[in-house]
Recover the amino acids of this structure.
């Protein structure tokens, strides 16, 4: 895949970020309207009244959630991945590779972190110059040659320059809101079932119906939010691969690195599917490599296909 250019991709990701900031709250509001519509026996007049009353509270809650998650995303991500700061004195080799690449591209040097895991993986994160970082597993540092590790770092720097990391963090924050609401609806069903014994049949049927409506609506909204996220997360890996090849002039080095990574990308500390999509190879879903229905929901394209594309330039 030919690299489409830095400024083009940055502008495209900036537009996507703005669209996501509009699309996710809009989807959330639509979810609440559908819920009120069915909960109010499809009476649009009553549903409109309830919906208008709840709009300020929904938007305020979303804004607070987003600001907290946006401000604390770096700490959360590093805690979720077990990554720790890597000082220059601890590994001059890695620091020199990163520093030389940043100098060659006129970039500010991001912070460097290491994950204490013998598996091979890496990711970039951050929303601005102060929070940008590159995290490398201990395994990828020890098991890759200088050329291969340089290519991986260049891949992550491309994510930073393209603003991919900021776009993904925005999507992770909003998908987390829908995930929370869906989980809340499912938990409510359990409580509604427990409350049937202490309430009249009429009341229990009414509350049970409302909870079921909430579950269906939140599940559909969550599914749509996932589709929006998957729509922006897969192509970025091809573009970052191409960006790495453009920076290093060594596409074969990244192809070789990806081949080694594909053998053992599983970072034990990573439990969140949302965090997993930040990595150069998804450390949770890498087993799904065959063409199947599941591939529709993968955050990364098949790594073998990425290798084949890189090898075309060798």
């Amino acid at each position: 895949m030919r690299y489409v250019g830095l400024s083009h991709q940055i502008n495209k990701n900036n537009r996507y970020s703005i669209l996501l900031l509009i699309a996710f709250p809009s989807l959330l509001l639509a979810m609440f309207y559908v819920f009120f519509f069915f909960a109010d026996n499809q009476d649009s007049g009553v549903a409109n009244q309830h919906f208008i009353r709840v709009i300020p509270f929904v938007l305020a809650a979303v804004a607070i959630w987003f600001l907290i998650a946006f401000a604390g995303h770096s700490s959360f991500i590093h805690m979720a991945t077990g990554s720790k700061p890597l000082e220059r004195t601890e590994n001059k080799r890695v620091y020199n590779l990163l520093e030389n690449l940043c100098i060659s591209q006129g970039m500010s040097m991001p912070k460097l972190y290491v994950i204490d895991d013998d598996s091979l993986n890496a990711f970039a994160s951050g929303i601005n110059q102060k929070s940008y970082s590159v995290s490398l597993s201990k395994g990828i540092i020890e098991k890759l040659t200088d050329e291969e590790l340089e290519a991986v770092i260049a891949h992550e720097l491309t994510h930073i320059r393209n603003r991919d990391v900021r776009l993904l963090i925005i999507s992770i924050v909003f998908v987390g809101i829908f995930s929370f609401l869906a989980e809340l609806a499912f938990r409510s069903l359990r409580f509604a079932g427990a409350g049937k014994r202490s309430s009249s049949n009429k009341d229990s049927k009414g509350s049970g119906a409302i909870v079921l409506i909430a579950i269906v609506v939140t599940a559909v909204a969550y599914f749509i939010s996932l589709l929006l996220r998957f729509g922006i997360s897969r192509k970025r890996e091809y573009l970052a691969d191409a960006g790495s090849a453009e920076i290093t002039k060594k596409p074969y080095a990244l192809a070789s690195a990806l081949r080694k990574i594909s053998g053992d990308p599983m970072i034990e500390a990573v439990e969140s599917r949302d965090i997993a999509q930040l990595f150069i190879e998804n450390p949770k879903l890498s087993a799904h490599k065959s063409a199947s229905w599941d591939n529709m929901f993968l955050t990364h394209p098949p790594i073998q296909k990425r290798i084949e594309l890189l090898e075309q330039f060798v």
About this structure: The CA atoms of residues 25 and 59 lie 7 Å apart.
